[in-house]
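Weekly puzzle thread! Below is a chain. First person to post its structure in token form gets bragging rights.
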Amino acid sequence: MREASNAEDVRVCPDCDQINWVSGRTSIRCKRCGHLLGGHPLSAQHTLALIIAALILLIPATEMTFVGYRVSGQGQQITLLDSSLTLSAFHEQWLAIVVLLSVVILPALFLLASGVILIWHNRTHYKMGRWLVRAVKYIRVWMMADVFLIGALISFIKLAGYATIDFGFGVIAFAGFVTLLMMVVDRMKRHPLWPADERAVNYRAIVGESARQHQVVGCPVCYAANPAHQTTCWRCNEPLWTVQFRRTSLTFALLLAAALMLIPAQVLPIMETVALGSTQPQTIVGGVLSLWQSGDIPIAIIVFVASLVIPIAKILILATLAILARQDTSKRPKSALWLYRITDWIGRWSMIDIFVVAVLVALVRNGALMSVYPGHAAIAFASTVILTMLAAMSFDTRQFWVRKSTE
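Winning reply:
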């Protein structure tokens, strides 16, 4: 094994707990599990240009007409923000906050913080920069502008059979914003964001072995190696007590809560449609059947998978992995980790149904002729998605490697 004496040259993988030597490398991935630990040298100016362009597009995306529809001589137009404001008008403030935060506010904050980080990078006064990098790390998980765009397209398809859909410039600007946002997210994962720190103490560790064996704690944000007794990370000032949230007991509790919330989410109507004075409640499964019967089979499959298959599968898979992690899983830890990563990645896409409801409630407002109202299942389903995401975050994948690393 190779020894490393400089803390700047060491990264602790958050997925498998292996200590990695990264000095002089342009592509920093964990040698054991492949987790991306650092970045390729990228152009900060190029990333800043993408950030500025995305922020500029966000203005017309929120202010200009997003979409409109016409039926029987009557029509309605909405902006992007109406998808949240209309929910609030129907006393669904919690749901409105979730939509506004995940679609507009958090992506905007991510871009602004990323721009400041790149401008301040390697400056003498970097205290605020450290805080912003940590904030960006956590904000990135909860941004769902791309999921909202797919949900909006599904809602347009659902309406196409009943009305004429008119796309505004706002939806075009928002699609461009989402594209640039995803590019910035990918580049920020790869930028070397941490400047050399004079506080870095000399640290001796065996590269290629588990950090736990050497009484070392890996920072969950910057992956720096810290002595087990240290309370904050020497590189980014992240409180190291947050590592304690990665516990199997917490994962099980969150999964149980998600499973309980999934029951009303599937049984109660997620939205109610009023057409010619007649009220038609629609559950998630009812919406899938409606799309299937109308001939939109691919969309019906997408909604079915995102709204029913993914939440149930995620709960079952995470529960199974948590049970196996307590047993002897050292024979196939990479397979278990791969399954976890897939499950964690697809979880956020279950929010598609919530965004479909948000768009339809804002857009279809023609009184007794045709109107859509949010149902009680919407809050329960959004809670299920959030709880499963938190459960995935609390899951400690390092358990897969404990037996292997101590053999």
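Puzzle host: Confirmed. Bonus trivia for everyone else. The CA atoms of residues 333 and 400 lie 5 Å apart.
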